[in-house]
Amino acid sequence: MIIDAHHHLWRLSRGDYGWLTPDLAPLWRDFEPADLAPLMAAGGVAGGILVQAAPTEAETAFLLGLAARTPAVLGVVGWTDFAAADAPTAIARLAADPALKGLRPMLQDLANDDFILSPTVQPALRAMVAAGLRFEALVRPWHLPRLLVLRERHPDLPIILDHAGKPDIAGGAWSPWAEDIRALAADGTTVCKLSGLITEAGPDWDVERLRPYADLVIDAFGPERVMWGSDWPVALLAGSYGGWLDAARRLVARLTPDERAAILGGTAARVYGLATEGAGP
Questions:
Q1: Rounded to whole angstroms, how far apart are CA atoms 157 and 127?
Q2: What is the CATH number of the domain that holds 81?
Q3: pTM for this model (two decimals)
Q4: What confidence score (pLDDT) does residue 99 get?
């Protein structure tokens, strides 16, 4: 079973997608479940994890509503204000919906690179552990050392690294991203998404340009802690849903059947605790 561990859906009229502007022409429209369903069906994808794209609880409620009526949405990663005084209460309330699997504070967009380590945020992180939620890290390469500190402070917090930490593939950057990825993987618990690579590589990407980055992630974390995600529709900036899925299959072709199955679905099902019976586009 193939599971898309990272995709988005949005409705522009909701008005809280601050990063989404007409300059991003391929993305400047609504993306609904009906738009994604045929892409999943064509790729043999049973369902996926719907990830927040706006820093509001209103959007999280919108996503949970979509999950309630869309069988292909197997879980939701939402948002709350980690620095709010009532964050632990908000997290407990959101976690009451079984569709909510994790929370993501969009660290890459924050002015304070040390936000996740600040004292005001620690009660929220402890509340996530108590609620059984996963922490999704949307970061840039320079944030990776902060995640090492986060792991030391909260060893029981499940951490999922989005988009392999966004290496600058277009610029050919390797260090210190590669060393930091290996250091993060060494904790034995952090999980990494094989997603977003074509966006970081740019529209002229090809599989061989992606391969060193994908190979390092797979070798460092192991297939049991790597999961494929489309990052659709953001991926439209550099390619297509089917094109990236085909590239991912080629990137994992060297692995055993069980290892390929883990990356393309098994890891996501286990890490997110998904009930996949009846799933499908």
A1: 10
A2: 3.20.20.140
A3: 0.96
A4: 98
